[in-house]
Write the structure tokens for this entry.
Amino acid sequence: MVWWLVGGLVLIGLVVLGAVCAPVLRRLGALQRAGERLRDRVESAQALQSGVEELAERVAGLEASLARAAAAKPSKH
């Protein structure tokens, strides 16, 4: 009879623990998914920044070429 009482108390304790932990685990799962989405956005932003830097380098090269061409062109005055 004592074993039934102990077993019942343990079972009730596990049910209460599960009821308390379930919302916490759901919230942790939601936070993990949000973290993954944030990580994806950061990676996209880094890729975009790399593209912008590459374009800035290309523009600088074109501006230098344009300046050399303008300097080499004889003046019409």
In short: The mean pLDDT is 92.
